[in-house]
Queue: 2 jobs
Job 1
Amino acid sequence: MGKHSGKGVVVTGGSSGIGLGIVERFLQDGAVVVIADIQAPDISELETTYPGQVFYCKVDVCDESMIRSAVEELLRHTTRLDAMVNNAGIINVAGLSDTTAESWLKMLNVNVVGVALGSKVAAEYMTKDNKGGVIVNASSGGGRHGVPMFSQYCATKAAIIMMSQSFAQELAPAKIRVNCYTPGHIMTPLWEDIVEGMGKKLGKSRDETLQEFLTTVPWGRFGTPADVAATVSWLCTDDAEYISGQCIGMNGAELPW
Ligand SMILES: NC(=O)c1ccc[n+]([C@@H]2O[C@H](COP(=O)([O-])OP(=O)(O)OC[C@H]3O[C@@H](n4cnc5c(N)ncnc54)[C@H](O)[C@@H]3O)[C@@H](O)[C@H]2O)c1
């Protein structure tokens, strides 16, 4: 029996990177999981290893009705929504002079509105049977401190921390906990955009750019999706019952955090 046996979980942005790592971890822990992502995942192996536990629903997190359909898909396979992981997010590497109203709105829409709508829909379903639940939102180390060339990303990730704290207080009477995670440098496809953007700015190759980022991580290696997923899974257990409104980093001792 896994620690999440019989529980129902929706993971946005679960087709790739950290989200996929979170999906795998919840499956190992026994949950039924719906991947809510704009791009379809390759989950044939997961479907074989975890029959009847993993499903996909095409979702743009900016569209509330699509998020609702992901929860409805989950409820076709299990009894309730126990945890919602609002993990989907995008990045834009751009100096201030290269930002536009359009790029600001796109970043705000996916990263902030997407998490807000995911939290809203989750709270709606979790209150239906008075059993509560857990919402976990993806912020970033960049939500705790500004980074040159990443102002749009940092602004949206800081908003997620404040939103999560507000929701945590608002939803506590309904026994819904809301926390966020702030990963440091986790090697995923998102990093291709970062390395490309920063490599161009620094005039460095892919490997040189990666090496430069690595020197900022005292632990001496980049993080993996599994490093993040273990904590997200734990946050959704009863061992974390008194933890809400918090922001937990996984960053190999990187500063500032
Ligand atoms: N990788 C890191 O180092 C790092 C560090 C800090 C925070 N994060 C955050 O963790 C989360 C996951 O990042 P990742 O590195 O795995 O990225 P990724 O690019 O590998 O995966 C992101 C996923 O989100 C999906 N997505 C994008 N827009 C969407 C939308 N509108 N609706 C639904 N799905 C959408 C993508 O299709 C993709 O599957 C993001 O919120 C990111 O900001 C990542």
Job 2
Amino acid sequence: MAVGPLVPLSSAEEQAALRWLAGVAGSVTGMPTELVRFYCHAGPAGGGNFGGEEGRMPSFRELLAKAKAEIVEVDGPEAEARLGGATFLDVREPDEFQQGTIPGAVHIARGNLEVQIEGRLPDKDVPLVVYCAGGARSALAVKTLAELGYLDAVSLAGGFNRWKDEGRPWVTPRTLTPDQRNRYQRHLLLPEVGDAGQQKLLDAKVLLLGAGGLGSPAALYLAAAGVGTLGIVDMDVVDASNLQRQVLHNMDRIGDRKVESAKKTLSLLNPDVKVITHDLRLGAANVMDVISDYDVVVDGTDNFPTRYLLNDAALLAKVPVVHGSIFRFEGQVTVFAPYEGPCYRCFVPEPPPAELAPSCAEAGVLGVLPGIVGSLQAMEAIKIILGLGETLAGRLLAYDALETTFRTFRVHRDPACPACGADAGEIVIAEYDELCMPHPKEAPAAV
Ligand SMILES: [Zn+2]
């Protein structure tokens, strides 16, 4: 077949191309130069002989017939019987998918199949029903999937069009707007996030306790990531001394309510985000109302009674808490997953004496430190929402800024924990004093 002219490469370009193809900037020995030239070929797309009769290229019809002979096709009734058991894979183009698809289907356009399938569907033993509009692209896709090790994949004969004509179930998928596709493009490129993950983020509700040093970076990154609802609890006003670390606020906002300043900043950053302001002091009377609507709480509080109050309320509401704390040049992050990992009381059974636990106002803090710790909290919150990776539940991450070290420690659930232990009484939410002890359900009967 016709091969277009080869573009001569300068030796520097050739070496760069070799390194690129080798995947690393290391050794390039053994990489055939012809391969590079082939990829850098400037003529019409082509090259290679696909093995048609006597060198003739097979027609599309022949290629499809060959693929169909090698794969399994199922009809509508058989495919519908697999709904709920098998994973349905829609390989049509995004605009076709957006107009309607089979409920629960995973969408990977045929052109992205080889690149994305292993990231999106890593389990190669899972049964797959693959479909396109009419059954041709899906037949070719199933053949490719078999070559990649997905041996339990079948193609839906007649595709989505026949499925729909037969009156079988289909839905119009929720899709991102063009502006959202552009804004979250770097998320969409990650198979672990993708459209479905971005929709989860947009549907998620995160409560930030405090619009201060930890809450500022956490709120900024959560808003930028497209977490659809951010609640902010704070009853302070912006002071010039906050601006050394509380990056949600600025000079124009001095004297403003912190929740209002935070809302302005976050709304300007991302109009997708609904900011709910809670201009109040979190207390026993309101904590359940405030937190129970949220999927995750990011705790940036700096006092022990509030931490214990939040802990007990979060256990009751079964809301995970991403805890962060800072002291001078050191920070700590962990996740309290109710009844799955330790709670705050397992971790800190009782508050330290006041003289051993000075606040930032007393002890000082380097301004970048809450930026790092709050960003880690935002990352953990997003992992919880997306079900990604391993969270810090059961582990404490300690950051030492002077040594530049991150250390992780195991934190175990305390079987005797008065809040989450097996023998813990019913949790009662009440104001805590300096001792922060849990409240008994009823006062012991006098004898
Ligand atoms: Zn506990």
